[in-house]
Amino acid sequence: MIIPATLDKSAIIELLSLPLADCSPLFEKAAAVKREIVGDVVYLRGLIEYSNVCSKNCHYCGIRKDNANVERYTMTDEEVITAAQFAYNSGYGSIVLQAGEVSTPAHSQKITRILQLINEVANGKLGITLSLGEQSAETLAEWRNAGAHRYLLRIETSNPALYSKLHPADTHHRYIHRIDAIQLLCDSGYQVGTGVMIGLPFQTLEDLADDLLFFRNRDVDMIGMGPYIEHSDTPLYEHRSTLLPLQERFELSLKMVALLRLLMPDINIAATTAMQTIDPIGREKAIQVGANVVMPNITPVQYRKSYLLYENKACIEEAAVQCKHCLERRILSVNNKIGYGKWGDSQHFRRRDN
Ligand code: SAH
Ligand code: SF4
C-alpha cells in the first residue's frame, strides 16, 4: 500500500488493519521521517519508580489502591538521590520520577524537597520529568519552580465511554478531569507527554485512530504508549478472554508508533517497557519505526517486584548498572546513537514555546 501524504482517520484505520507483513512501506516511511526530522538518536530518561502508594483504583492497574496483595513502599530521599546521581554519572540526560497518585500537602512538599536535592547533586543539569498523576495548579507550579520541567499524564484512551469502563464511576476518576489536568500541564509551562494503552478490552481500531488524532489536536510534546497487559489482581482481568493475543497487541503498538511519527514528526516518542515485555526486542523494533526515547529502569531492585502495573514486566531483576550496558548494546544494534548527557527536549516543545 502507498502511504497517503495526509493521513485522515479512514487511512489510519486502514493502515492499522494491515497484517504486519504488509507494513514495510509504513515502517520505512516512518523511519525516514524520524531520521530526517529528529535524527537516529535515542535519548535516555532514567525511570525512578518512587512509590507504589496510590489513592486511585484504575481498573487496569496492578498497584491500584484496593489491591491488597501489593506490599506498599516509598523510596527514601537518599535512595532517590542515589538513583539520580547514578543517572547523572551515567550520562542519562534526564530522569523520570513516577509514582501512584497522591494529592496531600505533605506529599507535594516532599516531592518539592526531593526536586531541590536532585538539582543540588546534579548542578541543575539533569532534566526532570514527573509522572505523579493529576495534581492541583498550585502543586504543579510549586514543582515547576523546584526544577521539574516535563510531565507525563496519559489520557489512557481518548474515548470517554471507554474511559468510563476502565475506571470507577466516582468523581475521582472522570474523563473530563483528565482532560482538564492535561490542559493545566500545558498552561503551567511543562513539556507535556500523554499516551494511551493499546489493545484494551472494548477498544476498536477507530478508537486508536482517534487517539492519534487526539494527540495531534492537543499539540502535545511527547507520547508514551504501549500495549495493555492484563494483571490478575485487577477488575479488568475478567475481560481477558476478549483481548487480542499479546503478539497482536504488540504489532498494533508498533503500527501506532510509526503512524504517530508520520503525524507528529518532531515530537518525542517513547519505546515503552510494555513493548519489551511482550517482545524481547520490542523497544528496538519501536526505535526502528520512529521512537526516540527510552526509559531505563533505575529503581532499586528490591522495590521493582512491588511496582507491577502489569504482570511479567520486563527488567525487574536487573540492577541499573546491568541495564545500562544492555541498553547501549541494544540501541547501537539498530544503528541509533545515544544522546548522552543531553536533555533531548522535544523539538516540538521548542517550536510551540517560541
Ligand atoms: N499514577 C501515575 C503514574 C503511574 S501509572 C498515572 O497514573 O499517571 C503509569 C501508566 O502505566 C499509566 O498511565 C498506564 O497507562 C500504565 N499502565 C497501568 N496499568 C497498565 C497495564 N495493565 N498495562 C499497560 N499499561 C498500564
Ligand atoms: Fe494509580 Fe496510576 Fe495505577 Fe491509576 S494508573 S491506579 S493512578 S498508579
Q: How would you describe this structure to a colleague?
A:
This protein is an alpha/beta fold and 354 residues long. The chain has one domain (9-353): Aldolase class I (TIM Barrel, Alpha-Beta Barrel), CATH 3.20.20.70. Helices cover 43% and strands 12% of the residues. It contains 14 helices and eleven strands. The strands form two sheets. Strands 1-2-3-4-5-7-9-10 form an eight-stranded parallel β-barrel, surrounded by five helices. α2 crosses α9. The model has no long low-confidence stretch (mean pLDDT 95).
Task: Please sum up the structure shown.
The protein contains 14 helices and 11 strands. It has 354 residues and is of the alpha/beta class. Strand 1 (41-51), helix 3 (77-89) and strand 2 (94-99) form a beta-alpha-beta unit.
Distinctive features:
14 helices; globular; alpha/beta; eight-stranded parallel beta barrel; binds S-adenosyl-L-homocysteine; 43% helix; TIM Barrel; 354 residues; binds iron/sulfur cluster; 12% strand
Work out the number of β strands.
11
User: What spatial order of strands do you see in the largest sheet?
Assistant: 1-2-3-4-5-7-9-10
Give the full name of the CATH homologous superfamily: Aldolase class I
Radius of gyration: 19 Å
Relative helix content: 40-55%
Based on helices, strands and strand pairing, what is the structural class? alpha/beta
Q: Which spans have pLDDT < 50 for at least 5 consecutive residues?
A: none
Query: What would CATH call the class?
Result: Alpha Beta
Total discrete domains = 1
Strand content range: 5-15%
> What is the general shape?
globular
The CATH topology comes to: TIM Barrel
- Mean pLDDT comes to 95
